[in-house]
Amino acid sequence: MSLFTILAVSLPEAVLNIYIGLLLTGHRSKLYLDDKINIVRLIITAPLMVSVTFFSRYILTELLLVVLFNVLLYTLILLLVYKIKWHEAVLAVLIFYGLLITIEIAYMPQFFVLFEISMEEYFASDLTRFFTSIPQRLIQLGIVVSLWNWDIVYLKLQYHKKLKYYVLAFTFLLFIAEVSFCTLFLYSLNMLTHNFRIYFSILSIVFVAVNITYSKMLLTFLKQL
């Protein structure tokens, strides 16, 4: 990972992930930048997350292990820096990581199929990674803007202890299923025929539809509590 990729791709991703995770778990007050403590927290947390991502790719070789390792350390970072509850930290990480996966599987398989490039060629080009990350950043930014003035319905889960753990468990299972799918696709990409790449692309769209449907159903249900 080059310095350009860190500054242009990884760091903006980390900052937006922090905002999305904390907004969706009802901690908007920890994000106001007129508070020096919040600024320090952001300055500490974002580089730490980028460092975790950077080193995990060198320490671990299996993509699934990299993801699980990142989820664990991201959760610990949020717990230690932002002093939130453990289930809120876990849910925040699963949400923003799951969001990234949803965005990526919405267009990355199609990108590989359309341009017929390999994973090695993709990761070898900083500019390719930067330009393909732009849709992610724009969607993340749009979500942050949308959530900023929204009194998040997750706060209602605080009064339904059993329900919040069911939500956490199902979100985790959906997250594992999608990470497994991405792992299978990425590791078999260079061996797949063009037709099978198309099949995987279609399946990725199905996952996106499942995520959108689940999110809408959950938010609709919570608003009725």
Explain what the structure shows.
With 225 residues, the protein is mostly helical. It has one domain. Helices cover 81% and strands 0% of the residues. The chain has helices at 3-24, 36-59, 63-82, 86-115, 119-124, 126-148, 161-188, 194-223. Helix 3 runs antiparallel to helix 4 and helix 4 (86-115) runs parallel beside helix 7. The model has no long low-confidence stretch (mean pLDDT 76).
Topology diagram in text:
Layout: H1 3-24, H2 36-59, H3 63-82, H4 86-115, H5 119-124, H6 126-148, H7 161-188, H8 194-223
Q: Tell me the β content.
A: under 5%
What is the succession of H and E elements? HHHHHHHH
Largest sheet: none
Estimate the helix proportion, in percent: over 70%
Name the structural class. mainly alpha
Low-confidence stretches: none
Roughly what is the average pLDDT, rounded to an integer? 76
SS element count, helices: 8
Brief description of this entry?
The chain has 225 residues and is mostly helical. It has helices at 3-24, 36-59, 63-82, 86-115, 119-124, 126-148, 161-188, 194-223.
